[in-house]
Write a structure and sequence with these properties.
- By secondary structure, the chain is α+β, with helices and mostly antiparallel strands.
- Helix content is 53%, strand content 17%.
- The protein has 15 helices and 13 strands.
- The strands form 3 sheets. A 5-stranded antiparallel β-sheet has the order 2-1-5-4-3, with helices on both faces. A 5-stranded mixed β-sheet has the order 7-9-10-12-11, with helices on one face. It has a 3-stranded antiparallel β-sheet with strand order 6-8-13.
- The protein is elongated, with a radius of gyration of 42 Å.
- Bound molecules: adenosine-5'-diphosphate (ADP).
- Residues 346, 350-351, 354, 379, 381, 384, 392, 398-400, 404, 409-415, 438 line the site of adenosine-5'-diphosphate (ADP).
Length: 458
C-alpha cells in the first residue's frame, strides 16, 4: 500500500507548481491519498472499487469547498483569531498566514500611528503658524502658533474658510492668486495685530495648500532701522560735502598755487564728487527700498520721449557708441518720473561705460505678450560671467571694482534700477554671455501700462 501511495504521491507532486510545497499542502496530499487508497481497497473488497472511488472524490471536493466557504466567511467577518474555522493541512497554513499578516499590519499601523503622533506634536509646536487648507480654503488642520499669530483655533475653526477668519484684503488676494508670489507681509490678527508676518503658500498633494506664517517683526524692525540709518547718514553727509566742494572750487580759482597743489586739489575734488554721488545714490535707494507705489499712484509718463531725450544727451557727451531704438511711442506708464528716469538712464550709461567704443546698443520699449511693458537695453559688449549675474543688483557689487571706480561708478546703479522697478510692481532681469553681450530688462505689470490715447481721453 505504501508503494502505491508513493507512486500516487509522486504523480500528484509532479502536477504541483515548481516552488517548495508547504507542509500543510503535503499533509493535505497525504491525507487525501491515504483516504483514496483506503476507499479504493474497501471498494475492491465489496466489488465496487470505481463507484467507491468516485463517491470518495465527490465527497472530498464537497468537503474542500465547504472548508473554503468557511474560510471566506471568516475572512469577510474580519478574520478574528477566536472565530477561525476548524482547520487542517492547507487551510491551517492559510489561517496561520492570515494571523501573521494581521499581526504585521497591526505593528505597522502602530508604527504609523506613533509617527503621525510625533509629527502632529512636532508640527503643533512649530514656531511658525502652519495651516492646512483644502481646495475651497477650508481649514483642515492648524497648529498652536496659528492660534497665537492668526487667532485660528485648531478645533473651533476646523472646517471654516480661512478668508472668513483672516479678513485682510491683501491676504485674500494672495490666497486666491494662482500666480506664484513669493511671500506676503501682513499684520497678525487678534492679540498679534502688532506683529508683522511673512506668509507663504505651499501647494501640496491634490488641491491642498499649506499656509506658513512666520513672525518677522524683528527682521522688519532691523530692516527699517538700517534704512533709516543709511538715509539719515547720507542726509547728514550732504551738507558738509557741499561745503567742502564750495571751498575746493574757491581754492582752485587761485591761479598762483603750485601745480602740485592744483593737482592735489583736483584729486580731492574728484573724490568729493564721488562721495557726493554715493551719498545721493544711497539716499535715493533708501527712499525706494521696500516702499511700493499704491495702485494708482504716479503720473502718466511718456517713456519713449524720455528715452529719446536720454539718448540724445548721451550722444552729446560721447559719440563713441551707436544706439538702435525700437520704441512704441503710444505706450505710456503710470509711475514716478524721477525714479523711472534714473532706472532707464542707469542701464543706458552702464551699456556705454562697460562696452568698447563702436558698440551698438539696442534700446527697446514695447508691450510684451501678456500686456506688460518691457524696457530692454542690449549690448554686444564683453558680457558678464554667469557667477556674477545673481549678485549684480546688490549694493556695491561690481565685477571689476577698479574699473567701475575709475569710471565714476558707485556700485549702486543696478540696485537703484531693481528697487525702482519693484516700487512700480516690476522687476529687473539680467542675461549675459561673456564675449557676446548683455541684456538688461525691466518688466512693468500691465496694471501700470496705459496708452497715450487713453491718457489724453482721461
Ligand atoms: P557701477 O556703479 O559700478 O556701474 P552698477 O550697479 O551700475 O554699479 O553695476 C554693477 C556692475 O555690473 C558693474 O560694476 C559692472 O561690472 C557690471 N555691469 C553693469 N552693466 C554692464 C554691462 N552693460 N556690461 C558689462 N558689465 C556691466
Amino acid at each position: 500500500m505504501s508503494t502505491m501511495k508513493s507512486v500516487l504521491s509522486d504523480l500528484v507532486v509532479s502536477m504541483m507548481p515548481p516552488y517548495m510545497l508547504s507542509s500543510g499542502l503535503k499533509k493535505e496530499i497525504n491525507a487525501f491519498l491515504y483516504g483514496l487508497i483506503g476507499v479504493a481497497l474497501a471498494g475492491f473488497i465489496v466489488g465496487w472499487p470505481a463507484i467507491a472511488t468516485i463517491v470518495y472524490l465527490i465527497g472530498y471536493v464537497i468537503w474542500l469547498l465547504r472548508r473554503m466557504d468557511a474560510m471566506v466567511h471568516w475572512l469577510s467577518e474580519g478574520a478574528r483569531p477566536a472565530k477561525a474555522p476548524p482547520t487542517t493541512g492547507l487551510t491551517n497554513d492559510m489561517v496561520q498566514l492570515v494571523h501573521r499578516e494581521k499581526k504585521y499590519s497591526r505593528k505597522q499601523k502602530n508604527r504609523y500611528r506613533n509617527t503621525l503622533a510625533q509629527f502632529n506634536s512636532l508640527a503643533a509646536d512649530l514656531p511658525d503658524a502652519t495651516i492646512v487648507l483644502d481646495k475651497s480654503f477650508e481649514i483642515r488642520w492648524s497648529n498652536s502658533a496659528a492660534l497665537e499669530l492668526l487667532n485660528i483655533h485648531p478645533d473651533r475653526d476646523r472646517g471654516q474658510r480661512i478668508d472668513n477668519l483672516v479678513r485682510n484684503p491683501e491676504f485674500r488676494e494672495f490666497l486666491h492668486n494662482k500666480e506664484e508670489q513669493e511671500e506676503l507681509e501682513m499684520p497678525g490678527t487678534g492679540s498679534s495685530a502688532d506683529r508683522i508676518l511673512a506668509v507663504r503658500k505651499v501647494p501640496t498633494g491634490k488641491h491642498m495648500t499649506v499656509l506658513i506664517a512666520a513672525d518677522i517683526t524683528q527682521r522688519v524692525q532691523v530692516r527699517e532701522m538700517r534704512k533709516a540709518f543709511v538715509g539719515d547718514v547720507s542726509h547728514e553727509l550732504r551738507t558738509p560735502l557741499t561745503v567742502i566742494r564750495g571751498y575746493l572750487e574757491m581754492l582752485r580759482e587761485n591761479e598762483s598755487l603750485d601745480p602740485e597743489v592744483t593737482e592735489g586739489l583736483a584729486q580731492i575734488t574728484a573724490q568729493s564728487d564721488r562721495m557726493r554721488g554715493i551719498v545721493e545714490d544711497l539716499l535715493q535707494l533708501s527712499k525706494l527700498e521696500g516702499n511700493p507705489l499704491a495702485e494708482n499712484e504716479g503720473d502718466t509718463l511718456n517713456v519713449s520721449t524720455m528715452i529719446c531725450s536720454m539718448v540724445s544727451t548721451l550722444h552729446e557727451s560721447t559719440d563713441t557708441h551707436q544706439f538702435a531704438l525700437d520704441l512704441d511711442e503710444s505706450l505710456a506708464i503710470l509711475g514716478s518720473e524721477r525714479e523711472l528716469y534714473s532706472a532707464c538712464q542707469n542701464l543706458l550709461t552702464n551699456a556705454v561705460r562697460y562696452t568698447d567704443p563702436g558698440t551698438t546698443i539696442d534700446v527697446s520699449w514695447q508691450t510684451g505678450s501678456n500686456g506688460e511693458a518691457i524696457y530692454r537695453v542690449s549690448d554686444n559688449g564683453p558680457g558678464i560671467e554667469a557667477r556674477h549675474l545673481a549678485r549684480l543688483s546688490e549694493r556695491f557689487y561690481r565685477v571689476d571694482a577698479g574699473r567701475s571706480r575709475d569710471d565714476g561708478g558707485t556700485g549702486l546703479g543696478l540696485a537703484i534700477v531693481k528697487h525702482a522697478a519693484q516700487r512700480h510692481g516690476g522687476n529687473l532681469t539680467i542675461e549675459s554671455t561673456p564675449g557676446t553681450g548683455s541684456v538688461f530688462t525691466i518688466t512693468f505689470p500691465q496694471s501700470r501700462c496705459i496708452t497715450l490715447a487713453q491718457a489724453v481721453n482721461q
